[in-house]
Amino acid sequence: MHQSPGSAIHKAPSGSRVYAIGDIHGRSDLLRRLHAMILADTAPDSPDSGELRKVVVYVGDYVDRGPDGAGVIDILINQPLEGFESHPLKGNHEDMMIRFLESGEGGDMWLFNGGRDTLQSYGIEFSDMSLYLSEPEALAPVFRDAVPPSHRAFLNGLAIHHREGDYLFVHAGIRPGVALEDQSEQDLIWIRDEFTGSDADFGAIVVHGHSIRAEPEIRPNRIGIDTGAWRSNRLTALVLEGDTRRFLQT
After folding, report:
1. CA–CA dist 203, 205 (Å, integer)
2. Candidate CATH numbers 3.60.21.10, 3.40.50.2300, 3.40.50.150, 1.10.472.10; the one for domain 23-249
3. Whole-model pTM?
């Protein structure tokens, strides 16, 4: 008989503890706080605790809407969690930022969706932006000069999915009925209703952000961890170990 997604016991890899952090959106203050909570959560409490494999997955959307997108990226590059494997994923807001950086494309859409906050975090004030509002693509070279090469390398190196045991991590979700190897990057970082409204068995529990909820959303086939940190002050981490699940929140 076909087994439904909710009837199976899903597990993280043996000997591992996996933390998945939801959409940060420029809240470097909350990221620092959650990092401290994670470090406290993994503080040595037994002789063999040092053998634990520690993994952190960031599901994307580091920039826009909150005040310090540049600071978030700086933390991820220069202040990683010590002793952890780190897997930062690409979100749709990084997609918009990268396209604007590279070619000036999509400036109107990006600015409307929080890009102004990111520009300000890199030292480009609104008075400077206003010179380009009628022609936002002309702002791209100015922005390019303001973004450090290390930040551009970070953005260009982001993965679009990551797997740990029975859990698949993506930013937005996956398209039902399509094998993982055939999924498009566009869907993995942008899809919404077709994914969140599906009760399909995806072959793994999909852990995702992108779709804001007041609390983490647990469904038989997926776990949503975007709790709208930029406006709610609640940045969420899902903690997976063996067949257990729990959450840390600021």
Report:
1. 7
2. 3.60.21.10
3. 0.93
